[in-house]
Amino acid sequence: MNDMTDESRKPSDPKRREFLGKVTGAVAGAGVAAACWPFVRSMYPAADILEKGTSTIKLGNIAPGEMKTVAWRGKPVFVLHRTDEQAERMMRSEGSNKDPQSDELRVQKPDWLVVVGLCTHLGCVPVRHSDGWSCPCHGSEFDNSGRVLKGPAPTNLMVPDYRFDDDDAIVIGEA
Q: What are phi and psi of 22, to 5 degrees?
């Protein structure tokens, strides 16, 4: 038969059992957190993606009238060092009626234009000429402020978020 009485089934120290329950729960919680960490970490962007979230362009080697193309988030970005004449002409012009926008809203400094180099019609890369850009695929034309002048492009070239780090560098991807 059963030699155990009801008294022998009770814990000798109830606080010990409570402590062991809390420790077991804490170890189980730590185990769950350790098991979940790789899954949570896999949702972070990769280091190469974080690196490409911003692009820094040194401006010292871009002469007035020249343009440099840089990659930012997998897109070409045109950095144009406008001449004084180009900047003055763009400040006086409003672009076209298709997407009217003043030059002051598109640039931070009159002599520097920063735009994403993708035509807003179908994403082609426009070709540079002295008065702006033209899309070789469907004939859209953009001025030296990146504003659409004619063709099927519905809007101006996009101006990305950027800031001047100093007088010699632009950081694209941060405002």
A: -65, -40
